[in-house]
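name: query_chain
kind: protein
chains: 1
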Amino acid sequence: MNKKWLAPAGLAALMITACGSSTSSTSSGTSSAPAAASSSTLKTATIGGATVLTNAQGFTLYSFAPDTPTTSKCTGSCITYWPPVKGPATAGPGVTGKLATIKRSDGSVQATYNGHPLYTYVADTAPGQAKGNGLNLSGGVWHEVAASGSAAPAATTSASSGGGY
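structure:
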């Protein structure tokens, strides 16, 4: 009889421990978005038929046309929608280009790939999406970064037209 009672008590202890872990995870979950943005291992994935650069979680990385190899032009409210990839970054599977960093105007360090400062896009809510490719927002056109290091072609031309009404 004790064995039957100990098993549920043991399970209860595990559940309490798991709940404690869950609570801890939830607390750190509050800051999980910045943690995800600061992940510095880059890899490649095939998205929409193109081999592109992604972060460790599989989210597409973008470049901003107005940027230079040493300066990010995405500042202020722009980074709310296009969070910079924190540097330094390390090369994972399929990443063969040159990784470096730049210092942003706010003093933070941003990862670059073959001279392109890197960003994610908040509308990409799951790995494998590239909703930002070809968009003309925040003062310039955004492109997913091809594994070769160049800007991948926009998926559609209408996305970059900005309307026309």
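note: The beta strands are 41-47, 50-54, 62-64, 90-91, 99-103, 109-113, 116-117, 136-137, 140-144.
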